[in-house]
Amino acid sequence: xxxxxxxxxxxxxxxxxxxxxxxxxxxxxxxxxxxxxxxxxxxxxxxxxxxxxxxxxxxxxxxxxxxxxxxxxxxxxxxxxxxxxxxxxxxxxxxxxxxxxxxxxxxxxxxxxxxxxxxxxxxxxxxxxxxxxxxxxxxxxxxxxxxxxxxxxxxxxxxxxxxxxxxxxxxxxxx
Length: 175
Fold this sequence. Notes:
The protein is an alpha+beta fold. It folds into 2 domains: 5-55 and 155-174, no CATH class; 63-144, no CATH class. 34% of the residues lie in helices and 19% in strands. The protein has helices at residues 5-18, 28-47, 52-55, 76-79, 158-174, and strands spanning 59-61, 66-68, 72-74, 94-96, 103-105, 120-125, 128-132, 137-144. β6 (120-125) and β7 (128-132) form a beta hairpin. α1 (5-18) crosses α2 and α2 (28-47) packs across α5 (158-174). The radius of gyration is 20 Å and the shape is elongated.
């Protein structure tokens, strides 16, 4: 079932009441505002899931390519996309240079020095992708992303999002 922010926040409110939590209808606007942060937390949890099929639910090939010039490409367009790149999971991304070679992602830019030329390498620092032994040109990126539109959330993740949304107000009330 596809939800809107309003219908999902109402669902969360009803679920909280069903669980015996003492909540008033006045919490519904706070739940609605909490959907975006809950989607961000959910995206991170999904990207860390050991089950590849689950991880792939929030993984996609970005329509915008990254132009690599002299070993550097900006990820800014992917980070400002309406469904942005989940930057802290970039090491698991499938990034291919213009020749189709897959970049072996490294922990940091300093690790790019003195790598064998048999493979293409990449590392991210800030919002830039640095490469070694990669072809210049348009690189494609298939990676985890933050789902920002609840209407596009896969149905398999709705229960997980409900838990993320409900847990935040409960934790705030306890604190």
